Amino acid sequence: MLEGEKILVTGPTSQVAFPIVRELAKSNQVLGLARFSKPEDVARVEAVGVEPLRADLADGALEVVPEDVSLVLNFAVVKSGDFAYDLAANAEGVGHLMARCLRARAFVHCSSAAVYEGGGHTARREIDPLGNNHRFMFPTYSIAKIAAESMVRFGARHWNLPSVIARLSVPYGDNGGWPWFHLMMMKGGVEIPLHPDAPNTYNLLHEDDYLAHLPRLVELADVPAVTLNWGGDAVSIENWCAYLGELTGLEPKFRSGDDTIGSLELDLSRMHELLGETQVRWKDGLRRLVEARNPELLKG
User: Fold this and answer.
1) Which residues pair with 234 in a beta bridge?
2) Between residues 136 and 268, which one has the greater pLDDT?
3) Which of 1, 184, 225, 288 could be bridged to 156 by S-S, CB 3.0 to 4.6 A?
4) What count of other Cβ atoms lies within 10 Å of the Cβ of residue 177?
5) How many CA atoms within 13 Å lie on the side-chain side of 88?
6) What is the mean pLDDT of the chain?
């Protein structure tokens, strides 16, 4: 892992970023930037050695951020549904952040597979068309993520700030993730929505793997910004829920409808070339998730 760096991480309490700040704080000075509207979130990051910085990326007032950070890891995301606010926080906020951290040696921006045009079962490459495929679940999300990517590309060129854009698929691990929400729905007898164009396939990326990728992501940062897909094993919701059922004895109940996102598999050829293969296989990762979060649900 990275050592001896002064690292700014946005969104440090999120499901994706918290395992990152917890690990990085062992051998780096880590600053966690968020709105911190809940006092327990401040206590949570402080408990793992992270210094909390309170700010809202939407208003651009980032005086609390030291100008001498060596790395920026941007995991912040806002999905309020208000287009004006979400674009200000997710896109303009990236610009404010880059302008504040011009002495950083790398700017790592976590984007999303949600930027791709939806439909079909062809694995998306980095050069494929973009679109608003998450509109049924989060109306502002895809558009705000696309806008944020554009801001990163502009900022990298304008300020000569080496940057990398990683389009994340479905992260999961001991800290939760989409499969865990499905497990909770199974526990509660709630129907899990599926798009009728089955199977509904995504790329599960375990937290162990995205932690292992971080140092290489930092080294990939360049001008112009580098863009790559970021994911792991291609698995359908149908299959991972069935396996969670095998582990727990709970039966998934599905509801088919057009009011959810469809299959969105990524072509990981470029990622494998630049970052390497992932190590945690999806069944092992899901078993570990249940063991960590809900061991009482495991059969036997």
Assistant:
1) 203
2) 268
3) 225
4) 23
5) 12
6) 96
Instruction: Please give the Cα distance from 166 to 216 (Å, whole number).
Output: 12
Asked if 170 and 203 touch (Cβ cutoff 8 Å), the reply is yes
The dihedrals phi and psi of 248, each to the nearest 5 degrees, come to -115, -20
300 or 171: which carries more pLDDT confidence?
171
Which residues are paired to 165 by β-bridges?
A: 109, 227
Contact 20, 67 (CB under 8 A): no
**pLDDT of res. 187:** 97
From-to residues of CATH 3.90.25.10 in the chain: 176-201+234-297
Nearest to 116 by CA among 128, 103, 98, 107: 128
For the chain, how many residues are written?
300
The four Cα atoms 283, 286, 291, 294 give a dihedral, to 10 degrees, of -140
* Greatest CA separation for the chain: 58
CATH number attached to the domain at 176-201+234-297: 3.90.25.10
The answer to whether the CB of 238 falls within 8 A of the CB of 176 is no
pTM for the whole thing? Answer: 0.97
Question: What proportion of the chain, given as a percentage, has pLDDT over 90?
Answer: 94
For 6-171+204-230, CATH gives 3.40.50.720
- What average pLDDT does range 288-298 have in this prediction? 98
**d(C-alpha 19, C-alpha 114), whole Å:** 22
SS3 content of the chain, % helix, strand, coil (to 5): 40, 20, 40
Cα angle at 73 between 40 and 110, to 5 degrees? 100
pLDDT, tens digit, 9 for 90 and up, residues 17-31:
999 999 999 999 999
